[in-house]
């Protein structure tokens, strides 16, 4: 049976490693027994491609796992698995089959648009609380959809500088962005002055830093225009990137500061 949780994978891994270290402390193994040992781990699929129509829905990956467990004490209590990326997305237990092989199948739910690499980790625990070694593999979840699309850039044609001693004026820039695999698949939206392409500035869609509403696809950045800013036309280039590293076409907008 599969249970889904959302807690940081780093916390889980640290806890497993800490318990493993306790099991291996000098002088304990002779009195406490021998921990289980895992080997010959296999799982499928190693790579899963979500269909283009899955962009706005969770992706279900049919995950199968098998591992050999050896334990001289014959007191294995559970063989468990965890699937995680930045956070844990699934965990469960494997069932004992023939020849000391434990196996299981789970439908792992990948949140919409969160393609990337996920770790499949398996470990065993015996009745004395001793933990085995860990075995793991990497599962790559990708999408067939295309790159992000910037459909529009909202920026004023002209903006008059404040006079000396006057407060700065705010230049609001908005890039309207979509992605065939869902908005959560977008990693970043940036813009830059075409005359200085090495300096890129990030935009926000988190309801902060001038952005009106989180996760609506309208990436925003507010720029202060001071009286000391040089007048003239500035052409800005905008581009989005998704989790697969695909880039949108560059969209340009020109703002004249008077």
Write up what this structure looks like.
The protein has two domains: 9-143, Immunoglobulin-like, CATH 2.60.40.2550; 149-257, Immunoglobulin-like (Sandwich), CATH 2.60.40.10. The chain is elongated, with a radius of gyration of 26 Å. The protein contains two helices and 16 strands. The longest helix has 15 residues, at 9-23. With 258 residues, it is mainly beta. A hairpin with an 8-residue loop joins β15 (232-242) and β16. It has helices at residues 9-23, 29-32, and strands at residues 37-44, 47-50, 59-70, 76-84, 88-96, 101-110, 116-126, 135-143, 149-154, 158-159, 169-178, 186-193, 201-202, 218-225, 232-242, 251-257.
Briefly characterize the structure.
The chain has 258 residues and is mainly beta. It has 2 helices and 16 strands.
* Second-tier CATH architecture of the largest domain: Sandwich
Count of domain modules: 2
Proportion of strand residues: over 45%
Task: State the order of secondary-structure elements, H for helix, E for strand.
Answer: HHEEEEEEEEEEEEEEEE
Query: How many strands in all?
Result: 16
> Which structural class should the secondary elements be placed in?
mainly beta
What level of helicity do the residues show? under 10%
User: What's the helix count?
Assistant: 2
Low-confidence stretches: 1-11, 14-30
The average pLDDT value, as a whole number, equals 85
By CATH, the topology of the largest domain is Immunoglobulin-like
Cα shape: elongated
The termini sit apart by 65 Å
Strand order, biggest sheet? 1-3-6-5-4-7-8-2
CATH class of the largest domain: Mainly Beta
Radius of gyration equals 26 Å
For the largest beta-sheet, the strand count, sense and barrel status come to: 8 strands, mixed
